[in-house]
Amino acid sequence: MEYHSPFAYVPYHSTGRFDCQRHILLKLYGNFQKSLALFYKKIFVDMRKALAFLCAQYIIYNIQETIVAMEGTETMIKHLSLKAYGKVNLGLDVLRRREDGYHEVRMVMQTVGLFDRVELLCRDNPGVTVETNLYYLPTNENNLVYKAAALLMNEFGVEHGLHIQLKKFIPVAAGMAGGSSDAAAVLVGVNKMFGLGLSMEQLQERGLRIGADVPYCVLRGTALSEGVGEILTPLPAMPQCRVLIAKPGINVSTRSVYENLHMEELTEKDHPDIDGLVEAIRQGDLCRAASLMGNTLERVTIPAHPEIAAIKRMMLETGAAGAIMSGSGPTVFGLYTNPKSASTAYERLRYGDGSRIVRQVYLTNFFNRREPEEF
Q1: Is the same domain home to 99 and 228?
Q2: Is 87 a catalytic residue?
Q3: What is the reported pLDDT for 99?
């Protein structure tokens, strides 16, 4: 027998009336199948719409619930990783000694690609703790990163604690503002971590209480610095080149250098042409800018440490467009427009005859200014 469907059970030998009945039954069954398919399709579509509606309502409810739960809750970041970039002085002129003992200066500052790592970790217990990869650095209130964190946390009554992990790569006591840059990174990080809402200018104002270079280190990039370092004018980015940085095996005290700078003994050639340097930077003329670089403090530091002059000479002999001491020293940097010459100079200072007087040497680039949230 043939078994097509519940309505198709008819013996093979059936003819006539039975064939007519079979035809009618099959037609009814076909119509029934179509109606059933349409019925289920409508139910499926309606159920799908209903399910989508319920899901949408659930999502909206939960979003609203999350927003309500977050209202009045302090937004806080548990961990921040920051880069604290070092700087060099393309030009440094000392104008006078002020009545308060500070010196009034005009400097062209430039951030370089050499940086320290600063990790900020929020803690439940109040207070600030510091650890560093250099055993001889203080980890208490004598460290500028500690001072920076405590300054903001005390001012704004932050109840949480903060642990700072500092990994130093910028040479210490080298005239590259390593400590000031670390402090600037902590100011920016604490402001972001605890949602203090301070602007760059407000961070710079507080940074000045920590050190004269801290306001610039908050700004970064190419800038004219005046006063004691608190008056900053951003400049166009210095044209990119290779920057060779070399620190001899000595440390220099900034305080001692300024104390031994006798303004009455300075001649015209001891004062670099800061205005000419600024104009060369505005015009994007790297070679002219390099030729106008100068540092008044070399008048004090080089006689006491002749190796600084020897490093400058080696850099100029290997093709540097200009080479001077950064800050109060003893670090020397040279600008190279030819990458091959820069590599040759690096090899000489790192492994050649320069290695007798150079302890740390780095080959990097300029780092152009970024916003504080991109530290």
Answers
A1: yes
A2: yes
A3: 83
